[in-house]
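sry for the spam today, last one i promise. struct tokens for design, 183 residues
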């Protein structure tokens, strides 16, 4: 199924999710840096990357929601998409809480990274599950992937329904090779 939210035929959601993922990992890395060095720079860097990651995730969720709600109801792809969105929202919510806890300490003299770090690690675990489910949507259910048919002379240009993109079974050509379409 083609993605409904796309630019020049390319789905927008996969383009945008790299930013919050990187910022969430940088948040946990910076908090670990603060725990190791007790340099306030790392704590403040973690807060900035945390807030930026949450904002980027909200932006990435918009085309993701458009694609999710365009999937056929009661399909396996939509069920997987709902699980993917749930874990992604859980991760974003956890990082929002982590950022709020860190924000309260921004101007204080004593910085404690224990809570934000624990919440961030759980958020990364939720993000890994969301990523695995997102990959399953692409790899298994072919969501957001332009359908192509091997050894075909024509590629369908306007397939929008999920059920229409099944590849036909190979047909033997009688010459020792299998072809997808009789010629």
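last one done:
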């Amino acid at each position: 199924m083609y993605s409904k939210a796309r630019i020049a035929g390319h789905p927008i959601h996969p383009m945008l999710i790299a930013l919050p993922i990187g910022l969430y990992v940088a948040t946990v890395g910076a908090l670990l840096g603060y725990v190791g060095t007790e340099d306030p720079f790392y704590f403040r860097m973690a807060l900035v990357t945390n807030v930026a990651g949450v904002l980027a995730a909200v932006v990435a969720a918009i085309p993701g929601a458009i694609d999710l709600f365009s999937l056929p109801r009661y399909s396996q792809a939509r069920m997987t998409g709902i699980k993917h969105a749930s874990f992604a929202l859980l991760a974003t919510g956890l990082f929002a809480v982590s950022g709020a806890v860190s924000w309260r300490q921004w101007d204080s003299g004593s910085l404690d990274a224990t809570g934000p770090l624990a919440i961030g690690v759980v958020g990364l675990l939720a993000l890994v599950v969301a990523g695995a489910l997102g990959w399953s949507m692409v790899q298994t259910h072919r969501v957001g992937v332009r359908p192509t048919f091997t050894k075909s002379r024509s590629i369908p240009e306007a397939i929008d329904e999920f059920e229409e993109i099944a590849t036909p079974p190979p047909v033997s050509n009688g010459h020792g090779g299998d072809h997808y379409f009789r010629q």
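Confidence is low (pLDDT under 50) at residues 158-168, 179-183. ok im logging off now
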